[in-house]
Write a structure and sequence with these properties.
heterodimer, A: alpha/beta, Rossmann fold, 3 domains, four-stranded mixed sheet, 23 helices, about 50% helix, about 10% strand, B: alpha/beta, globular, binds iron/sulfur cluster
């Protein structure tokens, strides 16, 4: 779902790396996000305590997921929310379409939601004659450009203001060319206000759903989420079923972690707690409120004790910001909806290792993602798990055992041979010392040496030097 | 409702967590704040940091304090909620003949019947249910008399806050006001005017919601 037709990860990476503008746009944005996060979490001990709380809250919820979902359903229903269950992306799309058709709605306004990207909702509705308008400014920009989001939190982060200025001028009727951010915002505000006014159905995601009170929590800064959930007569909220938490009291620490990690804010401008449609006597708010609980592979992920941790994710995006690979290639190169470390772990599980397992190669295992994840998902471990599982998907399938490719086994055999035979070892060191600087810049080494200074090998190995100095060396 | 999907999903989930020991959810207490005046100061500082105008005004004369703010901003149409204590004191303190005061416009009918009006007023004044000092948020509980779009659609939102309802933390106000016992259809924390940083991470205010937020803190 949602991926571009042919997924050529290597090609994507090479193209992204060659795009200097993209790399500059990303680098400055990610630096800013990292700095702001660090400033808001200025007490390391407090942050670590908070991360532990976040981790245990999500684990506690996952450990009782079926019971919590039933409780959520019962309390939402009591609040007047119509709850639907969807096994697959296709099923969720059909549910949304059926609600729109029931309302004879052709104009949908949508708040930012990764799960609707995951299921490819916009395309599906457009194919069935329902126009979906993205209202988050970043999403609005990339919708105009016909692109998918490149970041979980800042979807248009790959674009700079000149690119956006040209886009607005070309695609929004009557929009003048301006590179002033304030003016660009004003153009978007004018355009979208009219759309909110006319919208027949509002679609949103959910950050946390509270089982005990049947409440949907949605955080945002722009107010478009409030618009989508307040002004149109019908509101449809979609959530992955891992978003449920037990109690209202679970929200304060999770909100702190989410907003601090995502944007470096202590709180977002708006935190919405929605517990039902318009009540009798009320003058505004949607008449109808639907909640769609989406599985789409999550129940399968829950069954694996290690991979289950993937479902703790609160989609803060900070693992992307801190990832040296993401910062260089950007979100689009990953080819699917969820980029960065979380994408490397989640996408292969959602789309299958055969199609998306290669994503797990996009990591140097530097551990940064695992160290910043607000709910302590051991992302590097899970990336390695994806690699292992991927390697076990050989031609003969898992039962074929985890057989590495021939060249890889050969390379390791040679390495082992050289390192277990002192004579060979000494010979190897001597050869490297003499000829190491003249390693060919072609063939398999070109990818490395093309952009890096070749390493200098010392003429004598450390071992040889230690022997010469008479140091104990065994 | 899609019964088969529900049954299938729940049975898979039950199988998946079979044998998983339920983890006890931990408690989290945010760092304590000094009380009293310091608490209100913190709230004010955090709100001002996100471009909110904060005024402390005498409880009994807030309408008088509001007037110069509206005049200065050139507000011509002010939306308010009739029938609320706030609405009543506004009506009592309003000199409808005064040419330099905005026209007060009551939110009396359902949104469907007055949508254009709501989208055209210059400002709205609402109450608040309290505030959270440690993160700098106002708590709004819109209801039948005070609709939710009042604090969302007009370009200027004026929120009136009782200084006695400022709490340390979100957890504290949830407990004190017993939120879990009866959630309104819509409860929203507001921290500043609507904002975005979606273009080159440059912060800009007033995207979809109010462009400006003014808070009047009622003090004795
Ligand atoms: S994996 Fe962790 S860091 Fe990455 S988006 Fe999810 S919660 Fe945030």
């Amino acid at each position: 779902m949602g991926e571009r037709p042919a997924f050529d990860f290597r090609g994507n990476i090479l193209r992204a790396l060659a795009d200097g503008q993209l790399r500059r746009n990303l680098q400055s944005a990610m630096d800013g996000l990292i700095r702001k996060r660090r400033a808001v979490f200025d007490d390391p001990a407090e942050l670590e305590a908070l991360r532990t709380v976040g981790q245990s809250l999500k684990q506690a919820a996952l450990s009782r997921l079926p019971a919590l979902l039933e409780e959520l359903e019962a309390n939402c229903t009591a609040n007047g929310i119509q709850v639907h269950w969807a096994e697959t992306a296709a099923e969720a799309n059909r549910l949304v379409l059926a609600i729109c058709q029931g309302e004879r709605a052709t104009r949908v306004v949508k708040g930012k939601s990764m799960v609707t990207e995951e299921i490819g909702l916009n395309h599906f509705l457009a194919d069935h004659g329902v126009e979906v308008l993205e209202t988050d400014l970043g999403e609005f920009i990339i919708q105009l450009a016909g692109e998918p989001p490149s970041h979980i939190i800042v979807p248009a982060v790959h674009k700079n203001r000149d690119q956006i200025a040209r886009l607005f001028h070309a695609r929004i009727p009557g929009a003048p060319y301006t590179e002033k951010v304030e003016e660009l915002n004003a153009i978007a505000r004018r355009t979208l206000r009219q759309k909110f006014f006319e919208g027949q159905v509002g679609v949103s995601g959910v950050n946390f759903a509270v089982a005990r009170t049947g409440s949907l929590c949605l955080v945002e800064n722009e107010g478009n989420g409030r618009m989508c959930t307040t002004v149109p007569p019908v509101h449809i909220a979609l959530m992955g079923l891992e978003k449920v938490v037990a109690r209202l009291e679970d929200l304060p620490p999770l909100l702190r972690l989410l907003t601090g990690s995502a944007t470096g804010q202590i709180v977002t401008t708006y935190v919405n707690l929605i517990s039902g449609p318009r009540r009798p006597g009320e003058k505004d708010g949607p008449r109808e409120l639907h909640l769609i609980l989406l599985d789409n592979g999550r129940s399968r992920i829950l069954a694996d004790p290690e991979l289950r941790q993937t479902l703790q994710c609160i989609r803060c995006g900070t693992c992307l910001n801190h990832c040296p690979v993401y910062v260089r290639i950007g979100g689009h190169a990953y080819g699917f909806v969820y980029p960065g470390p979380i994408g490397e772990v989640l996408t292969p599980q959602l789309e299958g290792l055969a199609r998306a397992g290669v994503l797990a190669t996009a990591s140097s295992l530097c551990q940064a993602c695992g160290e910043v994840c607000p709910v302590r998902i051991p992302l590097p471990d899970l990336i390695r798990r994806m690699r292992t599982d991927g390697a076990c998907q050989g031609p003969g399938g898992p039962e074929d055992g985890c057989r590495p490719p021939l060249w890889e086994s050969l390379a390791w055999k040679i390495w082992a041979l050289v390192n277990t035979h002192p004579g060979l070892n000494a010979l190897g060191n001597a050869l490297l010392g003499r000829f190491g600087r003249r390693l060919p810049r072609r063939g398999p080494l070109a990818a490395w040496s093309a952009v890096r200074t070749p390493p200098r090998f010392a003429p004598k190995s450390l071992h040889a030097l230690a022997v010469k100095e008479g140091l104990p060396h065994e | 409702m899609n019964e088969p999907a529900r049954t299938m999903i729940l049975s898979r989930l039950r199988a998946a967590v079979r044998g998983v020991l339920p983890v006890a959810p931990p408690e989290w207490n945010p760092p304590a704040l000094p009380g009293g005046e310091a608490r209100i100061e913190r709230l004010q500082r955090l709100l001002e940091a996100v471009r909110t105008e904060v005024h402390r005004v005498p409880r009994t004369a807030w309408v008088e304090s509001l007037k110069p703010i509206l005049r200065q901003r050139g507000v011509r149409r002010l939306l308010y909620a009739p029938g609320t204590p706030l609405g009543r004191s506004l009506e009592a303190g309003w000199d409808d003949g005064a040419g330099d005061l905005p026209r007060r416009i009551p939110f009396e009918r359902p949104m469907e019947d007055c949508k254009a009006m709501v989208f055209e007023v210059d400002a709205a004044v609402t109450s608040t249910a309290g505030a959270v000092a440690d993160v700098g948020s106002l708590v709004l509980r819109p209801d039948a008399r005070e609709p939710r779009s009042m604090s969302l659609v007009p370009p200027l939102h004026i929120a009136v806050l009782d200084s006695a309802a400022v709490f340390d933390s979100l957890g504290a106000i949830m407990r004190a006001q017993k939120w879990a016992a009866a959630m309104p259809a819509n409860l929203v924390l507001v921290s500043g005017p609507s904002r975005t940083a979606d273009i080159e991470m440059t912060l800009a205010f007033g995207v979809h919601g109010p462009k400006a937020l003014v808070v009047l803190i009622l003090v004795d």
